[in-house]
Amino acid sequence: MSLRYALLGLLADRPASGYDLLQRFKGSLANVWPATQSQIYTELAKLADADFIAVSDEGPRGRKEYTLTDAGRVDLRDWLTDTKPKRVVRNEMLLRVFFLGVIPQEQAREYLSDIEAGSAKGVAALAELEATTDWDDNDLSNYGRMAMVWGQRFYAMNQQWAQWALDQLPPGGKSEDVSS
Question: How high is the pLDDT of residue 178?
């Protein structure tokens, strides 16, 4: 359901084609709400059928540019103000951490190291995004930057936590077969 509102929000900023929206997802929302090309085009068709967006221009090779309609803007605003986000916290990564004692310690160490390395990549990717984005004073840029900083802090926290967790593992470790 949130893909719908991500698209409406991007179109509230300015009209865009499906391809333009895909590129904007990759450059801004991918760390918050990733979407594939097929998901975006499927959702655009649904939004057009619901009269929340309209085709404002057509170009070569069937390229369509979409614009947010008044009904789409109302739906986006209602979602922003009247719908509470789901606060269900399910974290498969931490569920696995909880049970790492079931596997040999070296595998547990590898799992935690992977978390640390993946988080470091996330920190680096968002630092590159921050450095290569032309930030301006429009709402999408301002609030997008807020979301990006959340991502930077999230990845940094996970990286620091994984480093700490690795330090908590005792030297050596289990070498026995735990499959029995």
Answer: 45
